[in-house]
Write a structure and sequence with these properties.
35 strands, six-stranded antiparallel sheet, 51% strand, mainly beta, Tachylectin-2, Chain A, binds beta-D-fructofuranose, 2 domains, globular, 496 residues, Jelly Rolls, 1 helix
Length: 496
């Protein structure tokens, strides 16, 4: 079958003279470029890939289309760090020049095998605007950082019977000396599944079957993307990005959403006994997260702080999206929590602290900034509605509001001039037990806010594109409220 051609399927090697330099110069002028979040110098990024702490360094790869803020030929871009906060940009790791990856080096994960980093990924093949196939491929990073594609790629050619061409995003794990590859897949009846291959060397794979994930996902779910698996606190956890979930109460309001599933995996019988599954993050811009083991074997996560099918205000500057900050996962009271990785404290520069006491119907500005961390301790909560406004100016603001009557928290980004994504609504919310005290931790970085409530019990990941003057931080309450706060200016962690 002939392959599909379209201008957006070209690699960085096909760049015209000065094309990349011009793209870089243009997007460097943007006021919205994050300072410590991994972001593209130009073009569009999406999923984090191949995450690893390998040979004393953290490696983050991520999906990248260089030429515009659109989804085109995907490369694997690469950054590394010794401390998880200061990132060095490295040359692009995977450029899809081979036949087996003719329409992009799609997402995948890494595993250390015999002192080398095995980076598994999907070679995307397109025969038309819709028709496609997929190959599962391998690239290997040596101790010295050299990356080469495996000579006998693809490891797995095409898709198994019973599935459409939507089979991708390998996550490989090792259990009792055997290797297992989880893949997101679409059944021929157009519903989503996770399928599994097995291997005894990480190279030669055979199809094992479909994972019997005993979830009652609705039939509207037509694809499961980016499956991730790990063990934490004696539980097995799957994190996966289903497409086709419909809004349900406070959940699943984005076009695509992310869930985590707690339970027990039996890899021999391919069953996963589900205890519970829940939405992982309540924000507007969070998708395709991937986890890996940190320095002390803690479970770390990066996500794509973005969403498909939505136009973002930075698109006109020819760059789009960033990754989340790294987060440390835990299971507390039967729920997965996400906390900022402890390494982020190294970014702190000047710190200030203060305390405000609010009375009925008042609000107070406690500071301003565009690149900071904020820790808030609310106490003596006598208000029904109270909260925090970020990116605040006379006419703008991102509003986080707690409601003690309803026992909910909501985030509203309607009051911003560069409003976007409104077709999916401007408000996200969650249930939350609100007593007399409450803890909120916020990371703001020019065009992103990540809000962690009660040590990561509820998290909102959200992009915001404020005007120059919208930098204020405001606390408001309709009754009594005490708030103690600390604000830390944060350093630059990655070049623009
Ligand atoms: C998720 C995803 C993956 C795919 C990649 C392509 O955002 O669609 O399933 O591998 O992005 O960029």
């Amino acid at each position: 079958m002939t392959r599909y051609t379209e201008p957006k399927y070209r690699t960085i090697f096909d760049a015209k003279e000065n094309e990349l330099e011009q793209l870089r110069e243009k997007s460097a002028k943007s006021p919205w470029k994050p300072a410590y979040h991994i972001h593209p110098q130009y073009g569009l990024i999406n999923d984090p890939n191949g995450l690893a702490y390998f040979n004393g360094e953290f490696h983050v790869f991520y999906q990248w289309y260089p030429f515009d803020a659109m989804h085109g030929m995907k490369h694997w871009a690469h950054a590394k760090s010794k401390d998880l906060v200061n990132w060095e940009r490295l040359p692009v790791a995977l450029v899809p020049v081979e036949d087996y990856e003719s329409h992009g080096a799609y997402s995948g994960a890494a595993l250390e095998v015999d002192g080398k980093l095995y980076m598994y990924y999907t070679g995307n093949i397109k025969y038309g605007p819709v028709e496609r196939s997929a190959n599962q491929c391998l690239a290997i990073m040596e101790q010295d950082g050299t990356i080469t594609k495996y000579d006998n790629n693809p490891l797995i050619e095409g898709v198994p019977e019973g599935y459409t061409g939507h089979v991708r995003d390998p996550k490989v794990l090792e259990k009792d000396g055997r290797y297992y590859m989880l893949l997101g897949a679409q059944r021929e009846n157009l519903t989503g599944a996770i399928i599994v291959y097995e291997s005894d060397n990480g190279i030669d794979w055979s199809f094992k079957g479909e994972l019997n994930l005993k979830l009652d996902l609705p039939d509207s779910v037509y694809m499961l993307e980016c499956p991730d698996y790990f063990e934490l606190n004696d539980k097995d956890v799957i994190v996966v990005s289903p497409q086709g979930l419909k809004p349900d109460g406070h959940d699943y309001h984005n076009i695509y959403n992310v869930i985590y599933v707690l339970g027990e995996l039996n890899i021999d019988t391919l069953t996963f006994e589900v205890e519970d599954y829940l939405e992982l993050d309540k924000g507007f811009d969070f998708y395709a997260p991937q986890t890996f083991a940190g320095k002390n074997n803690e479970r770390l996560l990066f996500a794509w702080a973005g969403m498909g099918e939505i136009d973002y205000p930075s698109d006109s500057e020819q760059w789009a999206h960033c990754l989340s900050i790294p987060r440390e996962l835990d299971i507390v009271n039967g729920k997965l929590t996400q906390k900022p990785a402890r390494e982020l404290e190294q970014l702190r520069k000047d710190s200030t602290a203060g305390e405000v006491d609010l009375e009925k119907g008042s609000s107070v500005t406690i500071g301003s900034g565009e690149q900071y961390e904020l820790e808030l301790d609310f106490s003596k909560v006598g208000s029904t509605q109270f909260g925090l406004e970020l990116f605040a100016s006379e006419n703008e603001g991102l509003v986080l509001e707690f409601d003690r009557m309803k026992q909910t928290v909501s985030l509203n980004r309607e009051k911003l001039a560069a409003a976007f994504g409104g077709e999916y609504g401007f408000v996200r919310s969650s249930e939350l037990q609100i007593g007399e005290t409450l803890k909120v931790q916020v990371f703001v970085d020019r065009s992103i806010a990540e809000i962690f409530i009660n040590d990561g019990e509820v998290v909102f990941t959200t992009r915001v594109f404020p005007k120059e003057e919208s930098k204020g931080i405001r606390i408001f309450a309709d009754g009594k409220l005490n708030c103690r706060y600390q604000k830390h200016e944060l350093a630059q962690g990655i070049s623009i």
